[in-house]
Design goal:
alpha+beta; binds zinc ion
C-alpha cells in the first residue's frame, strides 16, 4: 500500500516504512478509550487508572481534583478533558503543573515519524488523507499534525518552569514555498509581566524564519527573569549546533544561519553578559566612556575612536569595563554586530519618549513648552484622530497622555505627524533638530534598498548632527545610552543589508501581547500557553504584520505608484482596477526645507484647491507601490501634507471599495 500511495519517486526508506507500520499497529489498539500506562524520568509518578499524575518537582501532589479529573478521562475525550481542566483551574486555587499525559497518541507518533525520517510534505499529506478515512481525528495536513503534539512536559530550569518547542519543528512549520534555501533566523528574547498583582512573568525565546512572522521557540515562566543565561539558552543552542547549519526537509537541504538578536537593552545585557545601559562603558559599539552629570549617566556625543569588535568580545577583551562574563552566544553569533539596536525600544520608546518628556517637563531646559503651547499641540493631535490610514493601529491622541503612549504612537509622531503638528510649537531650532531625527529615520526605515543605500551615509550624518546638538537644546544630561546609540544605528542597516524595519521588535511585541492573552488563569501559565499554541497547529497569528488597506475612503486612498507618481483613488473596480487622480510633480511643494528638501524624499504638501480639477485615470492595483499618509497641515488647513508610509509597506493587501 505504501508504495502505491507515495509514488515511485518517493525517497522514503524501508526503515521509515517499517517504523510507520509499527505506529499504525499500535494505533489500532488505541482506538478504544483505554490508554497505556506511561512513565516519566522527570520526577516521581503515580498511576491512576492507567494514567500518570506527575509532580513537576518530584513531590506527591496534594490535591485530589486533578486525580479525579484524570480518573474521568476514560469516559471523555482528551479535548473535553483539557477544556474541563481549564475550567476547573479558573474555579479553584490549585496547581495543575504536575499533570502529565504521558502516553503518546497516534498523532504524536506520526509527527515524530515525519520529522525523524524527513518525510516530504506531499508524501505525508498523501498518507494522512488515507489514514483520515480510518482515524477521522487525524488532520490531513502534515503541518497541522506537527502542531498537535499533546504532551506538555514542562521542566524546572533557570529558576522557573520552562518548555522548549524544538528548533527543527519550528522551522519546518515556518517553511513555505517562498522560503529561500538559505534560511536566516532572527531571535527575540524579552520579559513580559503576566499579572498586575504578582511578579509572575514570561520570558519567551521567539524566532522568525527568514522574515516570517515569529513563533515561540521556548517559554520560561517565573517570579523573576531566568536565573542564568546558559541554562535559559541551552536547549536552543544545543539543537542549533547539532543541526550544523543544515536542515533537510521536503526534499530540500536548507542552510541555517543565526542572523540577529532583536532585544531591548536589558535583555541584550542579559544575553551578552555585559553591564547594564546605565553603566559608563555601556555602549555596545564603541569604547566611549560615560560620566555622571546631574545624577545621571551621560555618554559622549560622538563615536569613540575605538570601535568594539566581535573578535575582542569573543576573547573577553572587554572584561572589567563592558563584559561581566562569558556569554553562551560567543561562537554562535557575532556578539557585537549580531545584537541589533532595535529601533522600537531605542528610538521610539527611548529617544522620542525622552524628547516628549522634556517638552512637557524639562524644567530648566530650553526644550520645555509652555502650558498654552502644550494645549495647542494636544488639540492638533486630537484633530488628526481618525484621519490617519487604518493601517496605523493607534490614532493620535493628546500629548497629555504621552506617559501611556505605546511605541507605535511615538513612531507615528516621529515619522509622520511630527513634521506637521510640531511646526510653530517647538522653537525653530528645536523643530529643525527634530526634523534631523525624523528624516534620518525615514531613510533608515526605507525598504527600497537602492534608495536607502544611496542616502545611508547622509542619515548617519543627520543622526551625528542630532546627537551633537542635544546638550545645547536639551541640557547637559540629555545624552543617555539611547541618544548616544543613535550614532551607531546606521551600522545595523549596513551589517544586515536591510531596513531597520526588518530588525525591529515590533512583530515580537505583538507576539508577546498575544502570548499573554492566551493565559486564562495563574495556574501553570506555561502549560496553558503550550496547549493552546499546539492546538492552533502553527496557524497562531498574533495580529497583522503587514496590512495595507486600499480604499476610496480618503484616509486609505493615497498611494505612490511603482513609477513614483502620487495618486488619490476615487473608485475601485473589480478589486483589480483603480480610478485615480494623479498629483503631478508641479503641484507638489516641499513640506520642510531643513535639513533637506523633503520633496526629494516624497514628503510634500499640496494646495487642496489644486486637487479638485484633476481628471481621473485608470490604473491596476498591482501598480501600487506603497501607501501615503494624507493629513491637513496644522497651521494652514488649505494644504494637505503627504508622507509615504515607511514601515511595513510591503504587505498583504486588502481591497475595500
Ligand atoms: Zn558608542
Amino acid at each position: 500500500m505504501a508504495q502505491k500511495v507515495l509514488g515511485d519517486d518517493s525517497t522514503i526508506s524501508m526503515a521509515s516504512l517499517s517504523s510507520a507500520a509499527e505506529i499504525l499497529n499500535t494505533a489500532h489498539t488505541l482506538q478504544t478509550p483505554a490508554r497505556q500506562t506511561g512513565t516519566s524520568d522527570k520526577g516521581k509518578s503515580n498511576t491512576c487508572e492507567g494514567h500518570t499524575v506527575l509532580s513537576s518537582n518530584g513531590e506527591q501532589p496534594c490535591m485530589s481534583v486533578a486525580v479525579q479529573a484524570v480518573e474521568h478521562i476514560n469516559e471523555t475525550s482528551l479535548e473535553t478533558f483539557l477544556a474541563e481542566l481549564d475550567q476547573e483551574a479558573d474555579k479553584y486555587e490549585y496547581d495543575t503543573s504536575y499533570i502529565h499525559l504521558e502516553e503518546k497518541t497516534l498523532a504524536d507518533q506520526l509527527s515524530e515519524w515525519l520529522l525523524q525520517f524527513n518525510i516530504t510534505r506531499e508524501a505525508g499529506s498523501n498518507l494522512l488523507h488515507i489514514l483520515h478515512l480510518y482515524h477521522p481525528d487525524l488532520p490531513v495536513d502534515p503541518r497541522t499534525l506537527l502542531g498537535s503534539l499533546r504532551t506538555v512536559e514542562t521542566e524546572n530550569r533557570c529558576g522557573g518552569l520552562y518548555y522548549y518547542f524544538g528548533l527543527k519543528n519550528l522551522i519546518v512549520h515556518a517553511i513555505t514555498d517562498d522560503t529561500p534555501e538559505s534560511i536566516t533566523l532572527q531571535s527575540n528574547v524579552d520579559g513580559i509581566p503576566l499579572f498586575g498583582s504578582s511578579a509572575g512573568q514570561f520570558w519567551p525565546i521567539l524566532l522568525s524564519v527568514s522574515g516570517a512572522q515569529p513563533s515561540v521557540l521556548a517559554l520560561f515562566y517565573g517570579d523573576k527573569k531566568p536565573s542564568d543565561v546558559e541554562s535559559f539558552l541551552e536547549p536552543f543552542l544545543e539543537e542549533f549546533k547539532s543541526l550544523d547549519g543544515v536542515l533537510n526537509y521536503n526534499g530540500k537541504a536548507y542552510t541555517l544561519r543565526l542572523g540577529s538578536f532583536v532585544c531591548d537593552a536589558p535583555a541584550r545585557a542579559f544575553m551578552k553578559r555585559i553591564i547594564g545601559h546605565t553603566g559608563y562603558h555601556s555602549c555596545e559599539r564603541c569604547c566611549s566612556k560615560g560620566e555622571r552629570i546631574d545624577s545621571r549617566t551621560v555618554l559622549s556625543n560622538e563615536v569613540d575612536t575605538e570601535l568594539r569588535n566581535g573578535v575582542v568580545f569573543d576573547e573577553l577583551g572587554y572584561t572589567g569595563t563592558h563584559q561581566t562574563g562569558q556569554s553562551p552566544l560567543i561562537g554562535v553569533i557575532d556578539c557585537v554586530t549580531g545584537f541589533v539596536l532595535d529601533y522600537m525600544h531605542l528610538v521610539c520608546l527611548g529617544v522620542m519618549r525622552r524628547m516628549v518628556t522634556y517638552w512637557k517637563k524639562g524644567v530648566g531646559t530650553p526644550a520645555r513648552l509652555s502650558p498654552s503651547l502644550l494645549r495647542v499641540l494636544s488639540a492638533r493631535l486630537d484633530l488628526l484622530r481618525g484621519k490617519l490610514p487604518s493601517d496605523i493601529a493607534r490614532q493620535p491622541r493628546a500629548i497629555y497622555h504621552s506617559d501611556r503612549w505605546k511605541a507605535t504612537e511615538f513612531r507615528t509622531l516621529m515619522l509622520y505627524t511630527g513634521p506637521v503638528v510640531l511646526e510653530g510649537i517647538l522653537s525653530n531650532q528645536h523643530y529643525r533638530h527634530f526634523c534631523l531625527l525624523s528624516l534620518a529615520m525615514n531613510i533608515l526605515l526605507e525598504k527600497n534598498d537602492e534608495v536607502r543605500k544611496y542616502y545611508l551615509n547622509y542619515a548617519r550624518e543627520l543622526l551625528a548632527l542630532f546627537v551633537s546638538q542635544c546638550h545645547v537644546l536639551y541640557g547637559a544630561s540629555f545624552i543617555s545610552y539611547n541618544i548616544h546609540s543613535l550614532l551607531h544605528l546606521a551600522d545595523d542597516c549596513v551589517n544586515h543589508n536591510c531596513s531597520l524595519d526588518d530588525l525591529s521588535a515590533f512583530p515580537y511585541e505583538n507576539m508577546l501581547g498575544a502570548l499573554k492573552s492566551l493565559v486564562r488563569s495563574p495556574n501553570n501559565p506555561v502549560a496553558q500557553v503550550v496547549k493552546r499554541l499546539k492546538a492552533t497547529a502553527g496557524s497562531f497569528r498574533p495580529g497583522k504584520l503587514c496590512h495595507e488597506k486600499i480604499s476610496a475612503n480618503p484616509r486609505d486612498s493615497v498611494f505612490m505608484l511603482q513609477c513614483g507618481q502620487l495618486v488619490q483613488i476615487v473608485a475601485i473596480e473589480d478589486n483589480s482596477k483603480i480610478l485615480c487622480k494623479v498629483l503631478q510633480s508641479h503641484i507638489l511643494k516641499t513640506l520642510y526645507n531643513y535639513p533637506a528638501n523633503s520633496k526629494d524624499f516624497g514628503i510634500v504638501k499640496v494646495l487642496k484647491s489644486k486637487l479638485a480639477s484633476i481628471a481621473v485615470e485608470p490604473f491596476n492595483i498591482s501598480d501600487i507601490e506603497r501607501k501615503v499618509i494624507c493629513i491637513e497641515l496644522s497651521n494652514n488647513a488649505e494644504y494637505l501634507a503627504f508622507l509615504p508610509l515607511r514601515h511595513l509597506y510591503t504587505s498583504v493587501r486588502e481591497t475595500n471599495s
